[in-house]
């Protein structure tokens, strides 16, 4: 069986430590990247509290696994993803911007590029670039364009296990721009999350 071609994506990872690497020609990127990481951590706190309340657990139940005395979990990682244009002549239908998969751990907080021109990211009439996130429903992948001013939140495999299938980890992918489009590129900010590595994950008794 022929191997699947590599995904068409470039990325930079931010772990929020002194070991993060940033392009030297963009000295402001470290401060901006770390500030965004911190804001996503606050959003994650709120989402984990909502999750706990929805499961009839104490509001701060999950905080011990993500923060506590050990600080922020090392499984929280910000991924700046660049999906470059599809090169002329690259017609392999198996080669995607990012192939189908499920996320393995906690919630993924995704800011998709909302505007094709990059100038109306938070407007109510933004038009996303062609191609992008698709979610598998049944046997088909359907487009999942970002609503204006909204994040896309995805539950990973660990969340599905922890909640005893109350919250499901969906299969998704990033599709290519339409055939013949060799100019469209996209940027996504992907905040992956997960508890501390020594967390014991057991099915919650409050779940069915």
Could you please describe the fold and organization of this structure?
This protein has 208 residues and is an alpha+beta fold. The chain has three helices and nine strands, in the order E-H-H-E-E-E-E-E-E-H-E-E. The protein has helices spanning 29-54, 63-66, 157-162; strands spanning 10-14, 77-83, 98-101, 107-111, 133-137, 140-143, 152-155, 172-174, 186-192. The strands form two sheets. It has a five-stranded antiparallel sheet with strand order 1-2-9-4-7. A four-stranded antiparallel sheet has the order 3-8-5-6, with no helix packed on it. A hairpin with a 2-residue loop joins strand 5 (133-137) and strand 6 (140-143). The radius of gyration is 18 Å and the shape is globular. The chain starts with 9 loop residues before the first strand and ends in a 16-residue tail after the last strand.
Per DSSP, the total helix count is: 3
Task: From the alpha carbons, calculate the radius of gyration and give it in angstroms.
Answer: 18 Å
Distance between the termini: 41 Å
**Widest beta sheet: strand line-up:** 1-2-9-4-7
Largest pleated sheet: 5 strands, antiparallel
Helical/strand content category: alpha+beta
Question: What's the pLDDT, averaged over the residues?
Answer: 88
Number of strand elements: 9
Give the DSSP E fraction (strand runs of 2 or more residues): 15-25%
Order of helices and strands: EHHEEEEEEHEE
Contiguous low-pLDDT stretches (5 residues minimum) are none
Shape field = globular
Helix content: 10-25%
């Amino acid at each position: 069986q022929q191997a699947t071609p590599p995904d068409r994506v470039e990325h930079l990872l931010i772990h929020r430590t002194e070991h993060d690497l940033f392009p030297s020609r963009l000295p402001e990127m470290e401060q901006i990247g770390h500030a965004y990481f911190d804001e996503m951590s606050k959003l994650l706190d709120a989402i984990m509290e909502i999750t706990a309340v929805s499961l009839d657990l104490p509001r701060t139940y999950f905080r011990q696994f993500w923060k506590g005395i050990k600080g922020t979990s090392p499984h929280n990682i910000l991924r700046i993803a660049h999906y470059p244009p599809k090169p002329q002549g690259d017609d392999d239908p198996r080669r995607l911007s990012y192939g189908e998969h499920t996320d393995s751990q906690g919630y993924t907080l995704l800011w998709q590029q909302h505007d094709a021109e990059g100038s109306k990211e938070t407007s109510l009439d933004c038009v996303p670039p062609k191609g992008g996130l698709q979610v598998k429903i049944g046997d088909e992948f359907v487009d999942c364009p970002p609503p204006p001013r909204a994040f896309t939140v995805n539950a990973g495999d660990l969340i599905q296990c922890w909640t005893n299938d109350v919250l499901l980890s969906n299969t998704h992918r990033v599709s290519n721009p339409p055939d013949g489009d060799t100019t469209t590129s996209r940027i996504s900010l992907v905040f992956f999350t997960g508890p501390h590595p020594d967390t014991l994950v057991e099915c919650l008794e409050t779940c069915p």
